[in-house]
Specification:
It is a single chain. The chain is mostly beta strands and about 100 residues long. Helices cover about 0% and strands about 55% of the residues. The strands form 2 sheets. Strands 1, 3, 6, 7 and 9 form a 5-stranded antiparallel sheet that branches. Strands 2-8-4-5 form a 4-stranded antiparallel sheet, with no helix packed on it. A hairpin with a 6-residue loop joins strand 4 and strand 5. The protein is globular and about 40 Å long. The N and C termini lie close together (about 10 Å).
C-alpha cells in the first residue's frame, strides 16, 4: 500500500497533531538531552496504549542523535500519536 510520507517535529510532550485518523509511524529521528531519557509514542492520548518506547542515551559529546527505521509498513496508530519526551531535545517522525 502506497501513501504519501510526511514528517512532524515536536520539542515537548503532547499530541502529534497529525489528524484523528489512522496513521503509520515509519521512522523516528531524535536528539538526546544531556541525561539519558526516552521517547514514548502512545495511541490517541497520554493514557493510550504505548506502541513505541525508545531509550535514549545521554548526549555528552554533542553527537546524541539517532535515526530509527521501522521495518515493513511501520507501527499503526488508530488515533493521533501522543509523544512523551523525557530528556530529549526534539523528535522528528515520519508517518503516512
Amino acid at each position: 500500500m502506497q501513501t504519501d510520507v510526511k514528517s512532524k517535529t515536536l520539542s515537548s510532550t503532547g499530541a502529534a497533531g497529525v489528524g484523528g485518523s489512522r496513521t503509520r509511524v515509519k521512522a523516528i529521528y531524535y536528539v538526546a538531552g544531556a541525561s539519558a531519557g526516552s521517547v514514548s509514542f502512545k495511541d490517541g492520548s497520554s493514557s493510550g496504549t504505548e506502541l513505541i518506547n525508545l531509550a535514549t542515551p545521554a548526549n555528552t559529546t554533542g553527537t546524541g542523535s539517532m535515526t530509527v527505521l521501522i521495518p515493513d509498513q511501520g507501527v499503526l496508530f488508530q488515533a493521533d500519536p501522543y509523544l512523551t519526551l523525557t530528556n530529549v531535545t526534539s523528535v522528528t517522525f515520519f508517518y503516512g
